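To illustrate this point, we now present one chain and its tokenised fold:
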Amino acid sequence: MVEVHGGGRLGCPSMAMASTFSLTNTTITPFLSPTSPPKISSFRFSNSRSLPLPTLSTASSSPTTISHAPNDYKDAPIELRYPAFPSVLDINQIRNILPHRFPFLLVDRVIEYNPGVSAVAIKNVTINDNFFPGHFPERPIMPGVLMVEAMAQVGGLVMLQPEVGGSRENFFFAGIDKVRFRKPVIAGDTLVMRMTLIKLQKRFGIAKMEGKAYVGGEVVCEGEFLMATGSGGE
């Protein structure tokens, strides 16, 4: 039921859900989430000619104003639902560390960074990437070799540090082992790559790393990487 102080009673739908209410030729349409509107147990106006902002009383929470934004994560608009990746190193900082340039710089942002230990970075895969016209015209898939290259570049961000004797002028991707491609990566995906140092042989200038790449929380590529730091014999 809808109760109006100083007046009569108006009928309300049997499910007591939010609807459009009319009073003295004034139409009020409460704003509620279209996905899960709360059930209304009371709807009241004060005994006044000027209609104030109404309040809702629900069974699950204390009275809130209609204009109050939903608190539930699932009720938030999709564009506000997912937080953006943090930015530990932006593209300019990455360019200061890596020697790669367009069209072969395959790391957009670093979101976690422990120099000489590990790093997590992202590559936003877009249809404008220059490899898609040929791989493949009818089904754009990121080449596996470029996924591996992107991961190796993240490894470079880990190793090109004074702590491990890395040198930008003498740092090379030396080998891969146990590489597996689990799922295709397509335009529109965000490739999230983690590279972790497993073993460092400073005497020989060799670093062994473990790498995994994810899309949507699922592994799409993994393997072991060898990096030549150029510091052997020092």
